[in-house]
Amino acid sequence: MAGETVTIHVPQDADDLEEFTAWLRRASARGPVALDTETTGLDVFSAGYRLRTVQFGDRSDAWVIHWERGGPFRSAAWRALETVPHVLIHNAPFDWLVIDRHAEISIESLAPRTTDTRIKAALLDPRQPQEGGLGTALKPLSAAYVDPSAPDTQGDLTAVFRSLGYTKETGWAGIDLRHPTYNLYAGLDCILTARLDPILTSRLEYFGVRGALGHYEHQLARIASIMQRRGLLLDEEYTRELDATLAQEAANYADKAARYGVDSVNSTRQIAEALAGMGESLTERTSSGAVRVDKSVLLALADRDLQWARLGIRTPNPLAEAVLHAKRSGKWRQTYVRTFLDTVDADGRVHPFTHTMAARTGRMSVTRPALQTLPSSDHMIRRCILAEAGHVILSTDFQAVEMRVLAALAGVKRMTEGFLAGADIHEFTARLVKGDAFTAKDRKTYKGAGFSKVYGGGVATAARQTGASEEDMARAFAEYDRLYPEIRRASARWQREARGNGMVFVNAVGRRLPLDRDRSYAVVNYACQSAARDLLGQAVLNMEEAGLLDSLRLLIHDEALASVPKKDAEEYAREYERCMTMDLYGVPITAEAEIGGRSWGSLYGAAA
DNA sequence: GTAATCACG
DNA sequence: ACGTACGTGATTACT
């Protein structure tokens, strides 16, 4: 590797294991030791899941310990895990969880001894490959920083799986523990991680990224991992019934669509052709030139507004109506209900992954299942998620956090006065312009203008989103700039700073946010979104400090979802609000808790 | 693998 | 010079 010989050791007997233990003692005295695991797959909580190997390594040697063989192999690995003072792991939350569940070394024990190289890489450059960054996978990082010809250990192994008659999914469980490529690659990942760490560290030092930022991200990763271990309770009986109901509904509407020649309601081409045959004219095009047949187009043809309410403008097109219903039922079933049932464990719980640094702004994402994106227009899907027995759901939201962050970061004087006065900021703005005679429509227009400032949008988009005329919105933009001139000045300043810094904006906590050269206006959004994310991060640390971690279930950008004992719900509500209340450069950041019933759905639409 | 679509804050 | 809504995850069709 990088011109040097490295050695992968695969102990076969007690003498070999003794040698490993002696090596680990020497290596640990020199510095941190890289750690990795191989398992049967990603669903750590599924039945029959197995930990197969545990690997330790430094820059020249790796040891692949066959945990699966049990006996002395397991004992040696377990002792190593328990005693090793400092480990390097690439994507630690996954290995923490595996080791917690299958090797009986808790997250609480291992996380304080861990440096995660993926966190360091994301602090250097948070962009994904499709955004022009390296991404944070071990392979591209190794190729860039360690050795351009570093093997793609995951990808190459997939090819080995295929040659053995396995698939990408079945290979991890099926491959023989003694397979040389399996052991070679298991060990190499450790060596790559060991070599990556000092390079990432020196890059972070070069860019002046404070160590405290890395420490903070490791705390959040640990807390997210503990949340994943606990998981959320699923109402399995309800979920199964809902699965059947939605399947029936999707099939019924698909049958209706078939009468108009549409075999597959997800084929835009078929729908466009059928609608054209019915005499509808479809004028909108996607960016690649295809006929646009999305929800907004179909809703208009079905004589419905964006909330599906009847418009009374035209005769509803029956095909558009059938496609809308079939697609919604199909999407809700497949993306949400099926994933709940596919990932639920033997105790009726789902354990979503929280990626604490997923977005280029640092925002978190939640996957398998994607609990941040459940439909909010209806309680039906969220109804599947329950508080614990005797508990209720508690949801605590930051109030208009991105507007507050904008006021704070840009130093917007009058907007700050509004927040200090406890005003609804959009109403406050409307009143400043129109006086006490302002209307609900004025508030909506100024809300759209404010959102546009945070997102970096233009007059046309803001008008379209709010339903205001372009003339009204253009006037609102001009008034906004007159009332709050600091926003434009801050935008120009931040873009200038970023240009002087190699097109990287450094946010309020020192997070590096690369800017696209042709979209430098996005810096306002990056500044606001990333600072709001870090306020939630700080709130999460406050929650742990306040002893709320056992109740915390999910983080959704500006919201914390919890399961709390019913009789103490009011007390918990005040505690969560306290943890999410803070000051940002003189602007109050506030939060409001809402106490629900047993299911998450109880907070959405009809009681459940 | 890419495009289109649709779910969220 | 002008103007640009921002950030995600998941599924399906199609090549």
What does the model show?
A six-stranded mixed sheet has the order 1-4-3-2-5-6. A hairpin with a 2-residue loop joins strand 17 and strand 18 (587-589). Helix 19 (459-466) packs across helix 20. By secondary structure, the chain is an alpha+beta fold. The protein is built from 23 helices and 19 strands. 50% of the residues lie in helices and 13% in strands. The mean pLDDT is 94. It folds into four domains: 7-209, Ribonuclease H-like superfamily/Ribonuclease H (Nucleotidyltransferase, domain 5, 2-Layer Sandwich), CATH 3.30.420.10; 234-343, Taq DNA Polymerase, Chain T, domain 4 (Up-down Bundle), CATH 1.20.1060.10; 351-401 and 530-604, Alpha-Beta Plaits (2-Layer Sandwich), CATH 3.30.70.370; 402-506. The structure holds a DNA duplex (9 and 15 nucleotides).
How far apart lie the N and C ends?
Answer: 59 Å
CATH-defined superfamily of the largest domain: Ribonuclease H-like superfamily/Ribonuclease H
The CATH architecture of the largest domain? 2-Layer Sandwich
CATH class of the largest domain: Alpha Beta
- Please give the domain count: 4
Rg computed from alpha carbons, rounded to a whole number of angstroms: 27 Å
Q: How many runs of DSSP E, i.e. beta strands?
A: 19
Strand neighbour order, sheet with most strands: 1-4-3-2-5-6
The 3D shape can be described as: globular
CATH topology of the largest domain: Nucleotidyltransferase, domain 5
Low-confidence stretches: none
Compute the average pLDDT.
Answer: 94
| Beta fraction | 5-15%
Number of helices: 23
The biggest beta sheet reads:
6 strands, mixed
In helices, the fraction of residues equals 40-55%
Question: Class by helix and strand content?
Answer: alpha+beta
